[in-house]
Design a protein that fits this description.
Number of strands: 15
Helix content: 40-55%
Number of domains: 2
Radius of gyration: 30 Å
Number of helices: 15
Strand order of the largest sheet: 1-6-7-8-9-10-11
């Protein structure tokens, strides 16, 4: 596809920024191995420079075919575990164990780790022809030590194309079966970018590909503000994709939620801009000003508060001050979801009492009949429990619908909070708190008439004696 001059200019400016002050080197598209979807030149340069002893072990094992031999092992590991795992844990090609990436040490006291971190090679390669089937090319591919981690499709509104065209290009013209674009096995994220907005996805899936905005927001609304840089979206390459930033994202932000039963439902979580921003600003403030301060953070519904909290806790747990001393010895997360807390805490003693009484009932039945029915009893219990979940969910949803519940809407990939009526709020409170309290009172009254625990000690002793003697039969 012919590229418009203005789009080339946009591409060149991004490349220049990353090369000039982003910590990258310029990659050559001819060094990209389409069969393995790896920049082999940068891969072997990194391995030989950072781990000469381990590389020598590989040479002794594979001989003249050392590069091909290691590529085959790396290919298998990437296919099995994925890029994220390999970057974090390396590859074992016995007897050699090689790291594919070195992450920044938490403190400045470990000079060896810092020196290895500096050996990482981040490269930007333009117009990468990635397929063995055709000559399609991706505008920009970013590599860490030869492994592809991000693709970028660029559009310039001056040419009549916007970020929407970039998204459609990913959905219609980028086959997710291609190795470079395959979920988990190669690139971790794909950016659709123009001069005004940035959108991202971690999983290409044809027309079903779901993009999330990666914008800063503009005066409380969507999009990006006018800044001091050339474009509204310059923060992507001037800030987010900088060497230290990208390596930190790979090390401590990206998370793979795997579904072992249904791998197609697995999800790669890449932080959105507001999540990166809040975590890094808080960490920077604590580093500069120390502990003992309060912060108020505004997140809308569906914006990933739980992930932001988790990432912040993870970062703070490894934070060292200017004197390389640990800032926090422990991190405690307290939730403000009171209704859920009451429900869960109240369920603990109920579950304990139920199982204790259930065991007494089983002992009583064995004492009375001579038969042990744990398996049948638990099967019946599980069947009833599963069935009742569906029934109760339907009843509860019916109550909500009857009270006028309004479902939240998705706007620009963000779930918008909806103000519910007093009737809906009362039903939710009753369902999570009132109903359980009412049920608990009824069960408490019924327990008065349950007497199986009486003389249970004698019954258990008799059961034990009967088992030892091998006696059967029924107890009249």
């Amino acid at each position: 596809m012919a590229i418009e001059t203005k789009e080339i200019t946009f591409e060149q400016e991004i490349e220049y920024s990353l090369l000039d002050h982003g910590g990258y080197i310029k990659g050559n598209p001819h060094d990209y191995n389409r069969e393995f979807a790896i920049d082999t030149k940068q891969l072997f340069r990194f391995l030989q420079d950072s781990q000469p002893v381990e590389w020598e072990k590989l040479c002794r094992k594979h001989g003249e075919n050392v590069e091909t031999g290691f590529l085959k092992k790396l290919y298998r590991d990437l296919d099995t575990y994925g890029t994220l795992y390999v970057l974090r844990h390396g590859v074992v090609d016995a007897p050699a164990k090689l790291s594919l990436c070195y992450f920044k040490p938490a403190s400045g006291m470990n000079q060896t780790s810092q020196a290895l971190y500096e050996k990482n090679i981040l490269s930007i390669t333009r117009q990468v022809h990635y397929s063995l089937k055709n000559e399609n090319s991706i505008d920009v591919v970013l590599f860490i030590n030869g492994l592809p981690v991000a693709t970028v499709e660029l559009k310039n509104p001056i040419t009549g194309q916007t970020v929407e065209n970039a998204k459609r290009q990913y959905m219609k013209d980028r086959d997710p079966r291609e190795l470079l674009l395959s979920f988990k096995a190669r690139c971790l994220v794909h950016f659709a970018v123009d001069t005004e907005e940035v959108w991202m996805t971690t999983k290409l899936n044809g027309l079903n590909t779901y993009f999330l905005p990666f914008n800063k927001g503009n005066n409380g609304g969507k999009g990006n503000p006018v800044g001091n840089s050339t474009y509204r979206t310059s923060y992507l390459w001037e800030e987010v994709l900088q060497k230290d930033s990208l390596l930190d994202i790979v090390q401590r932000f990206i998370h793979l939620q795997e579904d072992k039963k249904n791998p197609k439902k697995s999800v790669m979580i890449f932080p959105r801009y507001h999540q990166l921003d809040v975590v890094r600003k808080l960490v920077a403030d604590v580093y500069a000003n120390g502990t003992g301060h309060n912060y108020l953070i505004q997140h809308s519904a569906g914006s990933g508060k739980s992930n932001s909290i988790s990432w912040l806790a993870h970062h703070l747990s490894n934070l060292h001050d200017k004197n390389d001393k640990v800032v926090f010895n422990s991190i405690i997360v307290i939730t403000d979801r009171l209704v859920l807390d009451i429900k869960n805490v109240g369920g603990l003693p109920c579950s304990y009492v139920f199982m204790a009484l259930f065991a007494d009932v089983l002992d009583h039945l064995e004492w009375k009949t001579g038969f042990r029915i744990d398996g049948i009893a638990m099967s019946v219990y599980n069947i009833i429990a599963v069935a009742m979940v569906g029934v109760c969910t339907g009843v509860f949803n019916g109550w909500l619908a009857g009270a006028g519940y309004v479902a939240p809407e998705m706007v620009d990939g963000v779930t918008q909070a909806v103000s519910q009526s007093a009737s809906v709020q009362n039903i939710i409170i009753f369902g999570f708190v009132g109903l359980e309290v009412f049920t608990g009172i009824i069960l408490t009254v019924l327990l008065i008439f349950l007497s199986v625990e009486k003389n249970i000690g004698k019954k258990q002793a008799e059961i034990k004696s009967r088992r030892e003697k091998g006696e059967g039969g029924q107890k009249a």
